[in-house]
Amino acid sequence: MLFLGHIWLLPLFPAMGAAIMFFFGRRLQKATVSAVCVGSVVLAFLMACGAVLQYVNWAPAHDHQPYEKILYTWLGSDTGHLNFQKSDGTRASLQADAGFLLDPLSSIWLLFVTGVGMLIHIYSTGYMAHEGGYYRFFGYLNLFMFSMLTLILANNYVLRFVGWEGVGLCSYLLIGFYFQRKSASDAANKAFIVNRIGDAGFILGMFFIAWLCGSLRFIDVNSFAHAGHFSPETLQYLTTATLLLFVGACGKSAQLPLYVWLPDAMEGPTPVSALIHAATMVTAGVYMVARSNALFILAPKSMLVVAIVGALTAIFAASIGLVQNDIKRVLAYSTVSQLGYMFLALGVGAFSAGVFHVFTHAFFKALLFLGAGSVIHAMSGEQDMRNMGDLSEKIPVTFRTMCVATLAIAGIPGFAGFFSKDEILWQAWKFHPALWAIGFATALMTSFYMFRLLYLTFWSPSRVVSHEVEHHVHESPKSMTIPLVILAFFSIFAGYLNVSESMGGAKHIDKFLEPVFASVTEKEAPAGESGPGLTEYLLMGLSIAAAGAGWLMARRAYGNAGKGYTEPIAAAAPPLYDTLLNKYYVDEGYDYIATGRRKLGDVRLGVMGLAEASSWFDSHVIDGAVNAAGWITRSTAAFSSWWDKWIIDGIGVNGPAILARMLSYPARLFEWGLVQWYALVMTAGLVGFAFYYVYH
Amino acid sequence: MQSHILSIILFAPLVGALFLLFVPKENKDAIRWIANIFALAGFLVSLPLVPMFWAQRFEPGFKFVEGAAGNWIPSIGAGYVLGIDGISFLLIMLTTLLGWISILSSWTAIENRVKEYYIWFLFLQTGMLGVFMALDFFLFFVFWEAMLVPMYLLIGIWGGPRKLYAAIKFFLYTLAGSVLMLLGILFLYFHHHSVTNPQVYTFSIVELYHTAPQIYSDYGPRVATLLFLSFFFAFAIKVPMFPFHTWLPDAHVEAPTAGSVILAGVLLKMGTYGFIRFSLPFFPNVMTNPATLLGMTVRGWMIFLSLVGIIYGALVSLMQKDMKKLVAYSSVSHLGFCTLGIFALTPLGLSGSVLQQINHGISTGALFLIVGILYERRHTREIAEYGGISNVMPIYATITMIMFLSSMGLPLLNGFVGEFTILQGTFMENWKWGAWAVPGVVLAAAYLLWLYQRVFFGTVTNPKNEKLNDLTPREVATFVPLLIMAFWIGLYPKPFFQILEQPVNHTIAMVRPDYPQPAVNAAAPTAPLVVPASGVPTTTTPSAASTSAPPKMKGTK
Amino acid sequence: MDALLHITTLHYLVLGAALFLLGVIGVLTRRNVVIVLMSIELILNAVNLNLVAFSRYWQGIHGPNALHGQVFAIFVITDAAAEAAVGLGILIAFFRNKETVNVDEVNLLKW
Amino acid sequence: MVWTDYLLALPITLLTLFALGILLIDFMLPKEMKWANAVTALIGVGFSAAGVYKIQLWMNGSPGTLGMLRTMLVDHFALYFWYLFLAATAIAILMSVRYLETEHENHGEYYALMLLAVAGMMCMAAGFDIVLIFIGLELMAISTYVLVGFLRRDRRSNEAALKYLLLGAFSSGIFAYGLSLLYGLTGSTNLGVIQQELARHVMNSDYKPVAVVALLTTITGLLFKIAAIPFHQWAPDAYEGAPTSITGFMSVAVKAAGWAMLLRILVVGLIPMRAIWVPLLVFVSIATMTGANFAALTQTNTKRLLAYSSIAHVGYMLLGLIAGTATQLSPDGIKGILIYLLVYTFTNLGAFAVITALRHRNVIGDELEDLNGLYSRAPVEAVLMLVFMLSLAGIPPLAGFWGKYFIFLSLIESGHYALASLGVLYSVFGLYYYLKIANAMFMGKVEESEERLPISLSMRTALAVTGIATLYIGLLPNRFIEMVNWALGIAQHPNVARLTQ
Amino acid sequence: MNPTITNPPVATPFFFYLLAATMVIGGILVIARKNAIHSAMALITTLLAQAGLYLMLYAPFVAGVQIILYAGGIMVLFLFVIMLINLERNLKERQFNKQWLVGIAAAAALGGLFIAVYTTSTKGKVLFPEGRMTYGESQNTQNVAMLLFDSRLGQYMFAFEIASLLLLVAIIGAVVMAKKRI
Fold it and tell me: Does the beta carbon of D237 lie under 8 angstroms from any beta carbon of chain A?
């Protein structure tokens, strides 16, 4: 049990790397930095392989239970005396451990995260070779790996949240890596804050779970969920809880309406986009929902919401992707769209299909991003596809691997994406044909925009603006191309791990995941598997056709796109094109209405509008009240002076004189300090008291 | 045999102040050295308290009690009685630590009237420690008021351009609250006399715990509520709760850096401490009174004000143009969490609240130091004056980032632990309260990150910023303890929870006798207690911890 | 009519009150300090009149030796003398500096 | 007259003898030896204090002796005040030496008048007969008129004296009128008899309206002496114009004597009319706190500011008399007043001592601006002034807090919550103007002259005494609280302040 | 000194009203005359009339003191001072200050109130009814002296001593204030 027993070391390897960078990074050579940081991830990968292998051997003997390793009590006093009241009135104590859990679900994530992560680290040594802040970059990357591994391996929601926030932070740091650029730091802020909104949902969801179950350990939560017999009220709370968790997932996995940060996140270096914003971090939402499957199953309404949001996101993002010109943005919207697919799968109850898509997607999307990075590297930083073209000869390795990835994502049979996507579509059909229809349309669009990308970049005539750039185009170094090749390999063959029965496959991954999704299978069991039916094959054929159609359309439109080519959509429906190009104006809408970053006329709405109003309120009303009290006091003091001056001396002293002598002494109006006035006040006081008491 | 460690801790800074009196004021460096040595000594003498307290952290009642009731002014029954429990222990340690750090941070910041500065500062230190140690209401009040004076002078003499306004506002505002508290104290005093047999006049807090709750039945809810309010104003102004907060931004902006650190780090905690130590146990029935006041119960109002404070403070921070003011308003938001946790009246909320008070002391203290460092170099705090500071001061930028993250409650840093516990404690009481507080967390990220972006990111646009020096070793030294504490609490908060367990459960038992308390033989710790990283020796074995008596219910007859 | 013709203590009281009233008017209205001082003497005389009248009244109750009021009146006269002496002294000192005896010109100290 | 009467009169006799002695010695002293007058006066005060102590020893625990054929009641209360007067006078004498030299008015009469004023005060505090009280009052008042105008070449001093005299005489006239009515109603000048007669016959008869008039006119005189609104207006003018040392003397000793007289008359003689005078005092007290605090807010003259502050303090002290039920006094309230007077003596004298110290060469030193940057010129004095100001504001642990403490204690005890709240809020309010002084000293712009302020030895002594007393009473008040308990004949229990009536 | 109850002499009301009228008119003249000397003369008249009233009240000693001390002593002092200070200027100036109307109103209110209180009584009873007794005037001075000096009855002895101090202070005060150089 060398690896399994010390599984807590897994996140610590990259953490050590990050710590070394933090303290000594500035003084280290680039080579040393690479060695330390890549080395730590390689170590983590090897350890992950070892641990998973050991787990696979260990599990059958232990009833396929998850392996749990608790290091120490993190939150809570560990005496059981710090209690709270559960929803049913019983006591539970606050406890969140620094504990790690390995089961099939986390195994899968563990493997592809460390694997892809390792490749991207290697790729980065080449990509970032000429950039400043090398150590900083790798420190952040390592920190990200640490957070991601914590997220994956956590044995309770709170520790998961640690990783969850940690990856958000690293995403923030890495998006803002080029912090001198305003757009980069803006995007970083946006990413973090939008994620925080999701996190707020996550926290609340967690509290609901703790309130209902009395614990946040996955094992406890699952056993609570499996125990059954819930009152309607509890089920209602469970629905709320799962919906809140899903809000968190929406934030992290860029679903409607919180997807807005992901396209902007492309401001970061490309390896970051590949690692964080395509392969790993953004799937955390999927992971979380899959992890909480026992609860989601109990809340069908939440499941429906997940499915609908997933489907809508898929088609929404895909439609935007149709017309984007920035190569990374196309991929970003593609990612959002694919994540939508995954949630669609989860929502319809096909958890393992969703997980499988995550798995395959990790490879081909990472590959796409890295390929895009390679293209950008070759083009000296140019990202606009309108200024590319005809690169297939010049960067052949990149070109070939990109082709593989495109075929995979488009769902061409034989490539990884086909298997996973098709499984999802089939499950969606079983749930409701409408969802399938959306998924199908999305598949068509996916194929179109991916091939559009391919044509515009590699095949169509060159539209490169400057000769210098054109002259400079070169294939990337080995450190970058080798990861591409490895990823291409997996983009083809990863799919064969879970070929469905209808195609004679064994569904290895489904079987492997079975203990995790036990509740799902139990629930589905009565419905019964009707075996591969005609419908399934028909649908499969339809989606293959869609993929092909997309390809053909793209080829027709962009195969010979020269300078100043026209977009087919722009030609057909200019308003639609504008809307799509401007991403349905969602960012603008948010800026005007939700955040208030932009003013609507003279009025600022949204949070900042509220903030402005509060600020005004604070300085004018509240502090105003305080100051007014002071002001009134002082003016009362002034008033008593004034009173002495004008009323007492003016009316009291001068008034009668004025009346009697008809304003003959206007110049003497200002006389004060008179003894007799004092005496008069005394007398008047005495008279007042006397009248009061004698006639009271 | 009484232990005198509390008195030693209490008067160590005062000794330093008296010593400084005899140093000629021209010799500035000597004064600085002596002040720093005494500040460090003040911190060091408090360190032995850690193992001593740790050994008896689960035992009920106050520890290290010193003096006897009525030994100071026998004729009115006021005594010099000191004693601590877990809550005050943590706050005392925070005070000694921050006191040392702020004195260290003033080395170059204070150039004129150095001697006075340090004398007043050390004096202030004693006042604050006294507040947390006093077990006699009268002694408490004396310290509470006495510490206003040095703070007033620190703001007023060494402050910014509007220092007079700020200093007077601070003094008057706080005093206005506390005088009403004095009347409340006197009421309790007479009530105690009237219900005890034989009739005794005393200010002893432990004694008053027994009688004060009876006011509700003796005089009716209205009087009890008014009495609660008389305490409430004192504490709410100190905290400050919305809408009594406007002295805070002014005081912070004008105060010298070290003053701000102490103000935010320790002074504000006196308000929350007062709530926990006095308001809750004295007026349990007011807290649980279902009758409404202007449409809400008293407790509902407290929660409401806390929630408003959280959101409102964050919103106002968002719009600030002055860095220090931004941090000041963020304090309003953070302290909103603390009061929310207190009035949630659950053990979790309460312990989270105390922990968050410590956290706020650490992170906001550090934030003020951070602002102070820029101010010392550029003499402006306008955010617009900066930009791209990361390029010229990378170490500074890194430390700032960590502290910002700590302040916004990122997990594995201290802020998260407190906020999470508070929110959970509140949520378990009423999930809507918890839900309303959560936007504060989001907004915290917004205002802090935006600030960071504007100050640190981008390129250096202002030529004046091009030649800024990065941190000196002394400045780094001021941050190191804070960073260590931030990570410690973030990674391993268990010792803190254990220290807080007994007082928190005890307090809740006093406020809500019906709240389920831990069983007598609760489960033993599941894992052996680990020696904390700071080298605090563990003298209690798990078995000892499990056999230690659970908190007894006191004060409710 | 009997009430008017039969002179009782009350008549003296009313007369004293009238004298008091005149004194107060003098104090409140005259500008000349000397006359203000004289008005104060009027007030003190009103007091004396009261005292002596009351003394007579109480003699009727407590016996002829109850002359406390008369003795008190002597003390008041002493006091009046002392006050007048010092008052006039201060007035002279004031007059030396300011060359006036008008009360409403005593107005350096104010507010 | 029996021999004990001579003993009871001993302090007064000694003061008179020393006053006469000073007048004689003064003729023989050359100009540069005039400080010997002060020394003589101090010795006189010392002897007188020894005489008081002798009486205290002789009383040997008995609550009090009626002497001088029932016209004088020498009890602990009187002894307490006698000590207080003597202490205040001693400090005021210490403050005066250098000041008079600077003003070129260093005459023996000054000290003689001071001692005679104290003799008058002693009669006021110990008098049990309205004649004695009245004569004592006049003795004190006339001495003070002269002292206020002692700077004869200074127009402000003249004016202050004239105003004080005119108003003082006017108020004594009204006061005497009230006393005459009291005598008329009760047939006696003895306070004890007055109380009995009022309680037995007058209050439930046709004579009640007359009694009310008597009460109102009497109380006017009393309130005038302690300067409560609306009978206060002499105070700021007289305080401002008088020599600073005399301002200090007036603000504590004269005021304490006024209080002693007020307590004697209201608490002993007129207690049957408590139901009538309490509402009146409520009004006066609120008016006093309000008016004085507001008026003090914008003052720029330190002496005048402190005058208004001392008026405000009268407002707080009056609350002590209000505390209690409609017919019953709260002993805690009286205790509060006595403690208040004690701490106020030291604190206020200290404050005036600092202002007196500011007078040098061509600087009058009573404007707020004169305090600017005092810290750099005289740090010890500035810190002491801060202590005095905070003590006046009632910040614990300084002496001033204790006065307020007992006043508010008594109010809470007797259920006057609203008044108590008002009082404490006004005390916060008051802090504002005390802080103005502190601001000027510590934060005001430093004048170009960085030279140290010359401060004489006697002044240092005065400052030391007042400063130490302020701190000592603040920190360890027990001894003083017990002293006041002793003065009021309140029994003492260890650890418990149980009050017996 | 045996009091004898007799009917009051017929002349009593007459003399009372005569003297009272003299006093009031004198008082009015004191405050109404512009010339301070005239006021002083009017005051002396008032004081003498008052002395007459004292005699009617069987207080011959006080009456004597009144004439000797007041009319003889104090008023001379007043006249000296009036002579000493400039008179001519005052004669040309206003006699009353600007608040005279209010002053009179307040004083009248006060005096009226006093009188109203004294004269209002329930059931037609008069306050302080006169005992209609007469006393031997010969022993008045002795009796006053008894109260001042007798070792058994002299309860005002101490006050009398203090009064001497009062006069001493008055002397010192007058000297200090009025003398140019001391």
Answer: yes
